Amino acid sequence: MDTTVNSRVWRLLQDIEDTPGFTITAPSSSSSGTYTVSYTDDTGEQYRARVDARVLECDNAAFARLEKRLERDVGWTIELFMQHRADSRWQEMEQIRVARYAWTEDLAEEALALARRQVRTSKMVFTQEVIEPRDAYDLLIAHEMACRRRGLTGEPEVVAANDLDSPRQRKQSSRRADHLGNVIGRLEWLLTHQGVAVAADGFLVDGQHRLLAVARSGFAAALTMCANVPDECFAVIDTGKARTLADVLYMMGYTKHPAPMSSATRLLWYVENTGSRDEWYRETVTEEQIHQSLMNEHPSFPLVFDIAQRYHSGQSMLVNKSALTVLYYRSLEAWPAAPVHEFWSVVQSGQNSDRPNNPAIALRNWATTWKTRPTREPGRKGRGPIEHYAVAVRCWNLWCQNQELKTTTHDPRIEAPEPYAPGQPATGRGRRR
How far is CA 76 from CA 22, 43, 49, 61, 395, in A? Predict the structure, then answer.
């Protein structure tokens, strides 16, 4: 696709072409960006509309006008396309269900009868309540009492064999409870369909960490409560696919590179909100924190992310993508006229520009051998972005101040400094912990 074609208009043209009865005619010359949309009705009469796809700026109002013109001139609507796609996908599902799920009409009737019976006989009651700390504590005590009545008072290996049929909650995680408590304390807690599930005897089928967070933190929280949950539900709760930060960013509309962008966004949050390298490993960032960070504090980060990713288009850039993106962004925040392109071009190409002991070259050489270098914590998850950012920001600061650096290394005892800004004191090395 031509880089000057608006991506939103291009997607619209693809949707039109995938709709039965509609055809797209490409421009007659490469210098023209006008596409022709054609539709022939049952009588053979043909309708046409022209679409200029080289519109670099197409806001919501302009896009809505384009859609109305297409509906008026050729009768195409997004609803028409979606209905066709929905019908096609349903037909595909009907074709694969026999092989994938051993589907038969008799089995489908049995499944329908079972579903109706479960709904008719269910005694589960759902409510949405404000759970105060003492309420949460009482529910945890009731759970402990239920465990004792069921004979679940010891560790799994010392429970009698005839007690193993009873469900057992997983061990409580103080880290998980503290994380949820901090979310509530930051007033970021949201009431959702997920909450606390309690059996008839008080056994907690789901939600023990939510209750423990409320009880420990001393903050009340709104929770969805479900009573009279059967024990057999325990085995299937929380067995679905966990929602990742990349999934959240994708649902927020950042569909181009959700996975690498989630890593970069997480590193940005850690750099700006944690006080030490150890906290980078301990702290857990929530989906709501990421959403608020992007929407309120860093709305231009996705744009800078796309620009910074260009330096990773080939195999010549060995600096971690997340570290590169975050430093690129924070450098421009500190110094809007920062020569970031010049610096990263040297790191990418390795061309010294006749500058002795160039810090950009030192960074490139360090990144080239990073995976083979001995580290204090070789297996620690997430150390790549953290170490690359710490080294990169020191090299960037020295490069901006025209200082020399022949070689560099990562010292976990030294904090990463703030990116260089003219008129402010900055050095290549941060302070020792």
Answer: 8, 17, 10, 18, 55
